[in-house]
Inverse folding.
């Protein structure tokens, strides 16, 4: 994945996330199951400045958020750093799809408009970076799934991908084996899910069909 420091638009979008969420107060405590996030790890989260939290510092919390640790107020505080790390570190856990599920638990539709706009801008900037790479089919698949799991409209992001036939093909290949059954390949999808079905329909659309026809002579099933 292209690092934020090599991608000015993504770097700017990450900065906008921090700005939009800056009024979220730093938590004074975090409820956590000690088996998942122990007292020492919680102390690190509470003692460091947000941007100073390392991937290792934040991974246990972000992976277990809303399952065995945390609540909406503290998650929203950490969210800009979680998204920054997710977009600049190929080897970090949790996967984007896990973060998408956690974000949905915060009910983004209730956020102040500036926060929702910052998240939207960040996601569009991230997809744009993938469209500048040849090997990003899996990343596109992961983040579109994450966006769907957030409860956001995937349509604008599919339209963004559609502008690059090569990346439509790369995304298609991540899902081709399951599409015949009207399913997507990413195991993080939980059905029923309207975004999942919207993506399946998009793969079956005339515009995507024309791209597949030009590449293969027929739609591979």
């Amino acid at each position: 994945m292209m690092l934020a420091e090599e991608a000015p638009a993504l770097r700017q979008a990450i900065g906008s996330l921090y700005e939009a969420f800056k009024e979220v107060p730093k938590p004074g405590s975090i409820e956590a199951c000690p088996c998942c996030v122990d007292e020492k790890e919680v102390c690190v989260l509470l003692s460091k400045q947000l941007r100073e939290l390392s991937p290792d510092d934040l991974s246990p919390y972000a992976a277990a958020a809303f399952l065995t640790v945390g609540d909406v107020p503290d998650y929203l505080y950490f969210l800009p750093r979680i998204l920054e790390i997710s977009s600049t570190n190929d080897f970090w856990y949790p996967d984007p799809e896990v973060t998408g599920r956690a974000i949905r638990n915060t009910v983004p539709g209730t956020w102040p408009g500036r926060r929702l706009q910052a998240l939207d801008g960040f996601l569009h900037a991230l997809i744009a970076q993938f469209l500048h790479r040849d090997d990003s089919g899996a990343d596109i698949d992961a983040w579109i799934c994450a966006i769907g799991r957030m409860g956001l409209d995937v349509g604008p992001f599919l339209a963004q991908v559609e502008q690059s036939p090569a990346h439509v093909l790369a995304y298609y290949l991540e899902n081709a084996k399951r599409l015949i059954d009207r399913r997507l390949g990413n195991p993080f999808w939980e059905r029923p899910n309207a975004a999942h079905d919207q993506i399946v329909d998009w793969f079956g659309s005339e515009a995507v069909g024309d791209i597949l026809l030009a590449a293969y002579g027929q739609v591979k099933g």
